[in-house]
Write a structure and sequence with these properties.
The structure holds 2 protein chains of 2 kinds. The model of chain A has no long low-confidence stretch (mean pLDDT about 85). Chain A has helices at about 5-15, 40-55, 60-65, 70-80. Chain A has a single domain, classed as Orthogonal Bundle (Non-ribosomal Peptide Synthetase Peptidyl Carrier Protein, Chain A), CATH 1.10.1200. Chain A is an all-alpha fold. Chain A contains 4 helices and no strands. Chain B folds into 3 domains: about 5-260, Rossmann fold; about 275-420, 3-Layer(aba) Sandwich (Rossmann fold), CATH 3.40.50; about 455-625, Aminopeptidase, CATH 3.40.630.30. Chain B has 24 helices and 21 strands. Chain B has an 8-stranded mixed sheet, with helices on both faces. A 5-stranded parallel sheet of chain B has the order 6-5-7-8-9, sandwiched between helices. In chain B, helix 15 (about 330-340) links the parallel strand 11 (about 325-330) and strand 12 (about 355-360). In chain B, helix 3 packs across helix 4, helix 7 packs parallel to helix 8 and helix 13 packs parallel to helix 15 (about 330-340). The longest helix of chain B is centred in the first third of the chain and has 22 residues, at about 150-170. Chain B is globular and about 75 Å long. The model of chain B is unreliable at about 625-640 (pLDDT under 50). The chains are: A mainly alpha, B alpha/beta. The interface of A and B includes residues 48, 57, 58, 59 and 62 of A.
Chain lengths: ~80, ~650
């Protein structure tokens, strides 16, 4: 079964932020919920996601992100609508 | 196979269970410098570097640094640097260091240096990295008119900050230069257009070289790191606009390794000897099987030229003082054949200070080579095409630098050059001669075996020992010796070139730099002594160190004789010596005892204090050309 975009983001976040993998991450999760998610680790997350999905974000897209749900939407739009 | 310098290809790929090993280390009790060096020996990407740095920070209280040397680095920068810190921490053990890193307040460069009681001052750094971005220096716009005044202003600002670092913090300064942009303004004419960003930044870099030299500092040459990687990928424009990252995030480990290697060189951790395997490393094929006519070396084939380039690169290192040795599994007669008879060989037997070819374990042979040269195994870099031999040496002697190489000899010189293990922060005329001095030493050892008594041998050497107080001429080499000598070093106190310069004029210290010449050649400067005025008409030995190349030559005794003569002249009645044990200086534990000092205290950690009453000291006949000269004159030579 192919992994969903959300799952892939979650795995990347666990690795990049070096946090426990049982932490709850859903579409509403934002930087306010995760201590390790600051402006710099955000860049690292973006770079890691670009590599994972083989995409490139525009600055405007990155700046418009409010939570994980937004991230899923931007990635799905770039990869052609989720890994269905 | 592509050779991608950004991924540190001279290091082994990180093992699959790296993250798990870090977790286990975190859960375990304590942490050792050995373990850290192990983790850092891999090609770590930024994420792994951060994990390793987290481990180091979590264990800060219980960490035993040995064999790593602690160093305190402060970064004073005008751009975003906080994420660089963990990468430097993770790279430092690769170059023998445990780095404590402080980052100045963002945008507070001048205040941190020139203010009172600032965080930077409280941190008391050994070394400060000063990095100012062209944007902050107002050199980011090209103009038709020459903009000399802008470059002047930028250079002046850098000089002012760097001077503050040296004067107010007493630290050594590393100035990061600027990347001379490859992106065109007018194109090929940029080079000649004085107002182009390229021309201005190139000019600024030349000024930075001058500033660093004047302050006995170093330059972190990011222009060349960027050139190595490729300037078109050095900066990631979106990352710059998004977060003011001065270079692409993925390049952080490479940048950090360059900072670490520079710190390593400053701390005397750079390697001193290149040990070469022979078959399929210095030539193609196996001399024992293929014979003199069958090995591939030299002009005519691509493969032969690539191997020849390895030899030429080794010779190039030798010309700046890196000692060459051979460690090969071969019958010695076979191994020597190409050196003696093959016309295409660039390396000759005389270039090799120690030549070991036998069927013993290579780790044991490397230890033997180090011992013969009088250096420790952590001063070796071992180049071998055979992965099994590399693995064996890494396992038995993890302190030896073993670059990872594939099976393409064309990449071998790159692996050595890009590894930074032979980094230098200064070059002196003595360096050029050093490799030959080691070779001459081997010849002397043979001479010693032929002659009878040691004294006869020493007499036969026609040694001339020249001593004089510290001066500007000897400064670089004095600082180099102070920072590189580990074994014959009584106190292992490190001084920067700037601190050495201060000693030259300090009336409360007595200093000596000692050079030794003999009939085999000039050994260059081989010993350094610093005494400071103490209580009750005494002089206290602050530093006494000597190159192990001249062990057993009675230089110590001649040195003491000179110190005694000067002390008597100054009305001193007692010399105080101190031995501070380190991981490496066990050989001088009884140094003062041998010289006739009496022990006056011994502490639990092995530190001992010694005294010599000058009234008890009797002059000796020593095997040097000897002509005592008054030391009242500061420039006098005791032995001429």
């Amino acid at each position: 079964m192919p992994e969903s975009t959300l799952e892939a983001i979650k795995e990347t976040m666990v690795d990049i932020f070096d946090i426990d993998d049982d932490v709850a991450i859903g579409p509403d999760t934002s930087a306010a919920d995760i201590e390790e998610w600051d402006s710099l680790s955000h860049i690292r997350l973006i770079v890691a996601l670009e590599r994972h999905f083989g995409i490139k974000f525009k600055n405007a897209e990155v700046e418009g992100l409010k939570n994980v749900g937004d991230l899923v939407a931007v990635i799905d739009a770039k990869t052609g609508g989720g890994n269905a | 196979m592509t050779y991608d310098v950004a991924r540190l290809p001279w290091l082994r790929a990180k093992p699959i269970d790296f993250d798990r090993a870090i977790k286990q280390a975190k859960a375990a009790e304590g942490l050792t410098g050995d373990a850290l060096r192990g983790f850092a020996s891999y090609a770590l990407d930024l994420d792994s570097s951060l994990k390793l740095a987290k481990l180091i920070n979590a264990k800060a209280g219980t960490l035993t640094p040995a064999p790593l040397s602690p160093v305190k680095l402060a970064i004073v920068s005008s751009s975003t640097t906080s994420y660089i810190v963990p990468a430097i921490q993770a790279a430092a053990p690769r170059h023998g260091l445990l780095a404590d890193v402080y980052v100045g307040e963002y945008g507070q460069t001048a205040q941190e240096i020139y203010g009172e009681q600032t965080g930077l001052q409280r941190f008391a750094p050994d070394v400060v990295l000063l990095s100012l971005d062209p944007e902050m220096l107002a050199l980011n716009r090209s103009e038709i008119e020459s903009q000399t005044q802008l470059v002047d202003a930028a250079a002046q600002q850098i000089r002012w900050l760097a001077e503050g670092i040296v004067a107010r913090l007493g630290a050594m300064v590393i100035i990061q230069n600027v990347v001379e942009p490859a992106d065109p303004w007018s194109g090929h004419f940029d080079r000649r257009a004085g107002g182009s960003r390229f021309a201005m930044l190139r000019e600024l870099n030349q000024r930075i070289d001058g500033i660093a030299a004047a302050l006995n500092g170093a330059v972190l040459d990011v222009d060349r790191i960027a050139g190595l990687v490729g300037k078109s990928v050095w900066t990631d424009r979106s990352q710059w606009y998004m977060a003011k990252l001065p270079f692409a995030l993925d390049l952080t480990p490479l940048y950090a390794d360059h900072v670490a290697r520079l710190l390593g060189a400053i701390r005397g951790k750079a390697r001193k000897c290149l040990v070469l395997d022979l078959d399929n490393t210095c030539w193609g094929g196996v001399i024992g099987d293929d014979g003199l006519g069958g090995i591939r070396i030299g002009e005519g084939s691509g493969e032969g030229e690539a191997f020849l380039a390895v030899q030429h690169y080794a010779l190039e290192l030798k010309r700046r003082g890196i000692v060459l040795a051979v460690c090969s599994k071969n019958d010695e007669a076979n191994a020597l054949l190409p050196f003696e008879q093959h016309e295409e060989m660039a390396l000759r037997r005389d270039d090799i200070a120690v030549f070991v070819a036998n069927w013993d374990d290579k780790a044991s042979n490397l230890a033997l080579i180090a011992q013969t040269l009088g250096i420790s195994t952590d001063a070796l870099l071992f180049l071998d095409d055979n992965p099994a031999e590399r693995a064996r040496v890494r396992q038995m002697l993890p302190e030896v630098a073993v670059p990872e190489v594939g099976d393409d000899p064309a990449t071998y010189p790159l692996a050595i050059a890009h590894s930074g293990w032979f980094e230098a922060v200064a070059m002196t005329a003595d360096d050029a001669a050093r490799a030959d001095q080691y070779r001459a030493n081997a010849v002397r050892t043979e001479a010693a075996q032929k002659l009878g008594s040691l004294d006869e041998y020493l007499q036969s050497l026609d040694m001339v020992c020249a001593m004089r107080p510290f001066d500007a001429l000897g400064r670089e080499r004095i600082a180099q010796l102070i920072n590189k000598s580990n074994q014959f070093n009584l106190t292992t106190r490190r001084y920067t070139a700037a601190e050495v310069a201060a000693l030259e004029t300090d009336p409360s210290v007595f200093t000596l730099q000692i050079r030794l010449t003999d009939r085999f050649g000039d050994n260059g400067m081989i010993a350094v002594v610093i005494f400071r005025a103490g209580d009750e008409r005494s002089w206290v030995c602050d530093s006494w160190l000597m190159s192990c190349r001249v062990l057993g030559r009675r230089v110590e005794e001649a040195t003491l004789q000179a110190v005694v003569a000067a002390a008597r002249q100054a009305g001193i009645s007692r010399l105080i010596g101190r031995y501070i044990p380190s991981a490496k200086n066990g050989m001088v534990a009884d140094h003062f005892e041998k010289l006739g000092f009496q022990r006056i205290s011994l502490e639990a950690d092995g530190e001992s204090t010694w005294a010599l009453d000058l009234a008890d000291y009797v002059e000796k006949a020593l095997p040097f050309q000897y002509s005592p000269v008054s030391l009242g004159d500061h420039d006098a030579r005791i032995y001429a």
